[in-house]
Amino acid sequence: MVLQLQGAMMKMENFQKLLELKKDLTGIENLAIPGREFIRLGCLSKLSGKGLQQRMFFLFSDSLVYTSRGMTPLNQFKVHGQMPLYGMTIRESEEEWGVPHSFTLFGQRQSLVVAASCASEMERWVEDIRMAIDLAEQSSSPTSDLLSTSPTDNKLSEDGGLEVESEDELCGSRSSLERQGHRGNTTVHVCWHRNTSVSMVDFSVAVENQLSGNLLRKFKNSNGWQKLWVVFTNFSLFFYKSHQDEYPLASLPLLGYSVTVPAESENIHKDYVFKLHFKSHVYYFRSESEYTFERWMEVIRSATCSASRPLLSSRKDY
Known about the structure:
Residues 37-134, 208-305 form the PH domain. This protein has 318 residues and is α+β, with helices and mostly antiparallel strands. It has 9 helices and 16 strands. The protein is globular. The two termini are 27 Å apart. The model is unreliable at 149-166, 174-183 and 306-318 (pLDDT under 50).
């Protein structure tokens, strides 16, 4: 019975993800249609006459859509273009353009040169795009046009004003979490700010890795430890004063973060401590036992590591 239901569950998860993505995009229609599968979303730099420009890309089973973050009331991403995958070819082009981690996409009507933030990100994108091209070639159904038919939406400027977002805005406090209609800390926005990507496989892994419990938190420049009830879900940590609280004090999206054990030079003379860091942002967390320490490391690595690599979260012996 479980095996029979698994396919239906995957289709429902995919449909739910398409509906979520529709809220983050403007200038698009016909996104959630039967047969279309979401594969990956994330940041790539698009090469143009003005140099490299940050763009958010959405890879589906039939097309690749690229957008930029616009100044809209709901912090949505404006769609600039769509490339059908049928007939597309892909070629690594670092030497040709002199841009690290770059590759060229050749479509039937246009070509794009894009660059990833690092070699591992490029590898994930190239692998998924090639897989999606194979899926599109095998499918006999034509690609449905995703772009809006509205004349104003189709005349989006490639160089439109972009909104700047800070790390503090992503790590929301209770007041920012309660703002109605604000979508500034969704997974799409976190990927934009952290210059990374996430796949449908990653989302599926995240659903299977959720955890809550007491942790002691310490900031990089503070002396004391603060006891909090912490909930991990959807690639984020949510901090509560106690397990009875209805609203979190703050949240911390983990995409792009690294999880390690503190070095001797950091003078954290405590047991069962792990460290989360992204650029200059550093947090220390202390658990109550070796078992809980290993469980927290397991689920956090499911959010901070790529699902394309073997993960500690695949272990089920705890």
